[in-house]
UniProtKB/TrEMBL annotation:
Domain START-like: 2-128
InterPro entries hit by this protein: START-like_dom_sf, START_2
Recorded superkingdom: Bacteria
Protein name (record): START-like domain-containing protein
Organism the protein comes from: Proteiniphilum saccharofermentans
Amino acid sequence: MSKEKFHIEFLMGNATQSSLWRMISQIDGLSEWFADEVTMDESETIYKFMWGKTDNEARIIHKKPQSSIRYRWLDEENEELYFEFLLRKLDLSGAMTLEITDFAEPDEKGDAIALWEFQVDEMKRRLGI
């Protein structure tokens, strides 16, 4: 079965673009909500994410500072699959949104979305939103 792309968007209220950028692109920010611990290799392009006794590594494959960052899991065989964070400022309200694109097996898509929702709720809590 092939993985399906999905896209979810979260309203991040009055969070600043720089605070959101730190949360999605820097090891200290990512370790606050995405993983228990995050480290980076010397090249600053491969991040190691640790959850308890489990870990996984991802490479940054695209980055537009203060706007978007795309990672690819190193153990993923299909090089076209990734997960991405995109920041946007809404024109009318000025509020920030966080858009997440990811891939999941069709029967696991609901669980994957629920996990992202849980993790983003933790990010919001850390940011005081």
